[in-house]
Design goal:
alpha/beta, about 50% helix, six-stranded mixed sheet, about 350 residues
């Protein structure tokens, strides 16, 4: 006697298979959704924090919604210690100013050279392009994953004292950082380094006479009423490179498509942040004018004098780069060519 077994209709089996596939896909999608926490040391309403959130939105779009960013509220380290947070896998991502770790980020600081550009968008796009093309992240970010590199608008001088020519800086106590300290010393000023958030209180108390900052920082750190005189340097005195990096552990935890999304917003994200910085710069300058402050553009004679004074910055960078086995002069020629491409 032959025993018969009932078999399921083929159509039913196919439906079950398709449903299982979609259930698996949906489950996998949810499992891969990741929130990247970015360490923060600036006030929550500061422009940089706002820009990082906008950058996060771009990243979310590029990743199909599988990546999001969260800006942390309480600082985990002082600004110069931010890189250690990603190096030691304390947080997913961190950002800071390259000038505060000059030995580590020497090549990134090529963009800090005086008189290169006046637009943060141009500078940011050029920096990412040039630095990526030369694969310098392999040297300077070898224990993390660089995902963003931008610049702030170039610096100018702000003071409570008269400030119309270079000679007015002599003897003034000016908050500075990076190459600005050496430049101010050559101008006869008395520079001192302060983290940006500490500058407001120092100006309020009279500990310093003035500061070097882009316009937007006056608004961001509430400095407009504490610095009534402003000296504009044509085509910008110099700028600062900023980096945004990810811990290797967090990078390795991403899917291949998420990694691709992060890499896809390198140049576009840099331009986006630079463009926002330029807009904020213009808005802050309008606020300074509205406050009735005195703005002076450095005259031609002093500008030419300043160019000669700051030549030591480029000479020093080239010499140090040559010691690394690279051609410093050729790299700066290449950088200037890259900047011309974006102007």
């Amino acid at each position: 006697m032959t025993r018969k077994f009932n078999t399921l209709p083929k159509q039913f089996i196919a439906i079950v298979a398709v449903a299982a596939f979609f259930m698996f896909s949906i489950g996998e999608s949810f499992a891969q959704t990741k929130t990247l926490r970015i360490a923060n040391w600036l006030p929550p309403m500061h422009l940089v924090v706002k820009m990082l959130n906008v950058w996060g939105e771009e990243l979310s779009k590029a990743s199909g919604g599988s990546l999001k960013v969260e800006i942390m509220k309480a600082p985990l380290a002082k600004p110069p210690g931010q890189y250690d947070l990603v190096k030691n896998n304390v947080t997913d991502m961190a950002y800071s100013v390259a000038a505060w770790s000059p030995k580590r980020f020497h090549l990134l600081r090529a963009i800090d050279m005086p008189f290169l550009f006046s637009s943060a968008e141009v500078g940011s796009a050029s920096l990412w392009d040039w630095y990526s093309k030369n694969k310098f992240a392999d040297k300077e970010f070898n224990d993390s994953k660089l995902v963003g590199a931008v610049v702030n608008p170039p610096h100018l001088y702000h003071s409570n004292k008269k400030l119309t020519v270079l000679g007015d800086l002599k003897g003034q106590k000016i908050r500075a950082g990076g190459y600005g300290i050496g430049i101010l010393k050559k101008l006869g000023a008395a520079p001192l380094f302060l983290n940006p958030p500490s500058t407001t209180q120092a100006l309020q108390k009279g500990t310093i006479d003035g500061t070097q900052f882009p316009w937007e920082a006056l608004k961001g750190f509430r400095l407009i009423k504490y610095s009534k005189n402003h000296l504009v340097i044509p085509n910008g005195l110099y700028t600062n490179a900023w980096w945004l990096s990810m811990s290797k552990k967090s990078w390795q935890s991403l899917t291949s498509s998420q990694k691709k999304a992060l890499e896809s917003v390198g140049l576009s994200g840099s331009r986006l942040i630079g463009e926002a910085w330029d807009k904020s710069e213009a808005d802050a300058k309008k606020a300074v004018i509205k406050a009735g402050n005195t703005i002076t553009v450095l005259n031609n004679a002093d500008t030419e004098k300043l160019k000669k004074i700051v030549s030591f910055v480029e000479e020093g960078w080239v010499a140090k780069t040559n010691k690394m086995g690279l051609n410093g002069k050729a790299l700066l020629v290449d950088l200037r060519g890259t900047i011309s491409k974006y102007k």
